[in-house]
């Protein structure tokens, strides 16, 4: 029988949770989306949806993990009944599918960090990216990321995840502060600050800005992915959930704002305003991060140093999120009775092998990012369904406002879970589906296209179907594991 | 720098970071209270 693992203190849990929430999305997506959608005007829906979507889901996840002491599949089996475990299965699969390509991204960040450390400016960033991604190197760095992440979770909660988070998260904040200070002291950086913060209120009349705010909040905080639920399994029984959720939500947004201060002013300081604007609005996450930003760093004094600093912060952000995904998967296998050692070995090998297609092909990577990124919205909705079926008020009284809770939630929580989250889910998903049809009116149904609506629905339905078919077997394994603990 | 930029930076940076730091402080206070209660128990 394994000893019950817990975080040594509340601060360990909070740092690990912040590590889960702060990932690449804060650094490579937020600044671009905020600056392209009205600057300060965008920040209003982004913060509103932090409270209307992310924080209630974080509260649900903390409370469920603390109460059930099981991973996502087991938690859904306990709160909704075993026949609904497939919903937990879908959530777990979503986060796992993201983990497979996220370790590839972590590897890219490590590679670029090392390239920055070499000290020579990266003059032809586009060619460098092209030759890097068409070589064997992404596989090597993907392996390195998997080994690093697996080693951390192999050491367990206190000696592994908690210790790593205590180093990674304060270091990440420090690196972002250094990068932000450097960026805003560059000559011409003020134009970037104006671009990022000057309010263009007419943007608030555009429904797309509101939906972008909601999407950014949903993806960035990691709410509804099952990751916080997994960390909550290792909380002490008499520990708070509500205050922790608010800390994670606002801590995540604080990191995003720092990243915005570091990136947008740098771009404006080094490029003419029209070109800077087109780089921000015309790039995708990968293009901005691995092509535009290295090109800019090559033009500034001590550029290699700042490039390595930037990619080190991205590596820390990616790694701290990757370990939460690895732990989620390991927790599921540990629920089924495996020891941590065996689970880590199995999950590590699986992550390396199933991440290989994304390491080989950017089209495959793009497909998985599209399908499972959107799948996370379904995951959040599944949490809301689970709690609504159980009874939101009952859940609030028995699971959230339980002993040890620092802040009690009132009826507003019931309204958000019962009405707001389902409506937000429908609006968000409909909008993304509508966009997918508009991007490719003739081929949106084609399941072979990387970012079609067809491939998304096909993969979701396939996974849900397989989990429904295998539900009885999965439940038997999961709860047999619990019985033998 | 435009006046709107300065005002919005104060509101959003000050607001989000201010709330984050306030919540951390609140958690420290609650932890202290709990440690006293649980010690007495």
Describe the structure.
The complex is a heterodimer of chains A (485) and B (41). With 485 residues, chain A is an all-alpha fold. The model of chain A has no long low-confidence stretch (mean pLDDT 94). In chain A, α5 (85-117) crosses α20 (453-469), α8 packs parallel to α12 (242-270) and α9 (189-197) crosses α12 (242-270). Chain A has helices at residues 10-21, 24-36, 40-68, 72-80, 85-117, 125-133, 137-154, 157-184, 189-197, 207-221, 227-232, 242-270, 273-282, 285-297, 303-335, 340-360, 362-390, 392-400, 411-439, 453-469, 471-483. Chain B has 1 helix and no strands. Chain B has one domain. The N and C termini of chain B lie far apart (57 Å). The model of chain B has no long low-confidence stretch (mean pLDDT 91). With 41 residues, chain B is an all-alpha fold. Classes of the chains: A mainly alpha (485), B mainly alpha (41).
What are the SSEs and their pairings?
The complex is a heterodimer of chains A (485) and B (41).
Chain A: H1 10-21, H2 24-36, H3 40-68, H4 72-80, H5 85-117, H6 125-133, H7 137-154, H8 157-184, H9 189-197, H10 207-221, H11 227-232, H12 242-270, H13 273-282, H14 285-297, H15 303-335, H16 340-360, H17 362-390, H18 392-400, H19 411-439, H20 453-469, H21 471-483
Helix pairs in contact in A: 1-8, 1-12, 1-15, 2-10, 2-12, 3-10, 3-12, 3-19, 4-5, 5-7, 5-15, 5-16, 5-17, 5-20, 7-8, 7-15, 7-16, 8-12, 8-15, 9-12, 10-19, 12-13, 14-15, 15-16, 15-21, 16-17, 17-19, 17-20
Chain B: H1 3-40
Features:
heterodimer; A: 485 residues; mainly alpha; Amino acid/polyamine transporter I; 21 helices; globular; B: 41 residues; 93% helix
Q: Any idea what the radius of gyration of chain B is? A: 17 Å
Overall mean pLDDT of chain B stands at 91
**What's the helical proportion of residues of chain A?**
over 70%
**Overall pLDDT of chain A:** 94
Overall domain count of chain A: 1
